[in-house]
């Protein structure tokens, strides 16, 4: 059994680790969740410990994620060191930019209301093709947020009091080169190395207000957005974890050798086997979500170290836990349907890719948690909304179908800013309901768990109870953050961002140009072959491919009820 004694007068801290799953354009939803979470913690910290108020402290020592979730973790880190007022509703103009709010500006504003047009531009194709879509807009956003050109114009601040002096930030990476190790076998009288590779990788940072010199934690890169310390590596890691395979181009990340060789998210045996010698070390990476899209087990490892409680019997029990993982997942896993037992080549190819991804993402160590129906050590917040049908019937939608950015595998948010606006404010609202009613401890644990027993001592009010049962809020929601979903009215005149197909089909000609540029530059052709290919592409191929792509888009938007 493990326990840490707290000898100070300060109530023992409850540690909250944030895990942000991959989301593509639905990062707008995750950003909305984080916006409200930070607002709620800020409001609680202002009144914590005052007469009649709860006393327990909630602290976030780690934020990590994959793909869009990893990018949001990095953007949130930058937001912690800058002035940023929460956005509880859009302005008079629904599509107005909010350049002074990092989370909103990064995920809702992006670089253009019609960012899809930028993704179809061909200026990134200069004799060779790096990706199916133009992803220059991602570089612009990452540079703008994580490594601003004029830091002197920004109002900087210290990390909020509900974060420790050093905050762990990490993103997952799918390292295409991988780390090589060998397993020795006896062969023909000698030892024969059998080479294998590890492709799962992590970029690890330690966000701090201080200029760390000797007080560095092995394997964690010091990060300070105000001074610019390691911000270039942060930019590289952010765009690399979001490098959706084929769609967006692969990215390089450059790190010091000692950081890679001491990566804290690898176990000791793996680190000993994969030591590298090149300094600095450069890796070519694609979407971190390909191998590990929900790195909650890594957040758990860091939490265990922060609170000294690694025994699952302790951190999975409401009466004893000192920490929990909060996973934000715009695309929560759903039970797969049974496969069709068909041996046709194209069918098997699709199933093979799906099986490979599922196996890479499987977490054998967490299988035991599947049997635990009362696991205090992990919580999930995912999209949820209600709407009324024409006949007045109320419908509740849970999961990816509740967000507008959920169509097209998460790419639909790039088609319309209205989709991103909706999901951002839904994220804020879902977070409020979650913290108020579901991010709670049972009434019995309030009297047994030392942290909450001290925190809620002498509190008789039901103000901090869930509205669905008799449980108590882990993060007490104080009055000033009593938030309701804003009355959003979109261009369609409805509160769900339905689009006219004309607004989408206007990209048809741009798509044709992109398709033609891709075909003409995928490989090197002889002049005569290039000439005939240009004719064939111009007359037939680009039109056929574009028509197929747009039909897929139309079908998906219809399935999500996003088209008039």
Secondary-structure-derived class: alpha/beta
What does the overall shape look like? globular
What's the overall average pLDDT, rounded? 89
Euclidean distance between termini CA atoms: 60 Å
Provide the β-strand percentage band.
Answer: 15-25%
Order of helices and strands: EHEHHHHEEEHEHHEHHEHEEEHEHHEHHH
Low-confidence stretches: 1-7
Q: How many helical elements? A: 17
Overall number of strands: 13
Largest sheet: 9 strands, mixed
Radius of gyration: 25 Å
Oligomer: single chain
Helix content: 25-40%
Question: In short, what is this structure?
Answer:
The chain contains 17 helices and 13 strands. By secondary structure, it is an alpha/beta fold.
Question: Please, could you describe this protein's structure?
Answer:
By secondary structure, the chain is α/β, with parallel strands linked by helices. 35% of the residues lie in helices and 17% in strands. The protein contains 17 helices and 13 strands. Strands 1, 2, 3, 4, 5, 6, 7, 8 and 9 form a nine-stranded mixed β-sheet that branches. Helix 1 links the parallel strand 1 and strand 2.
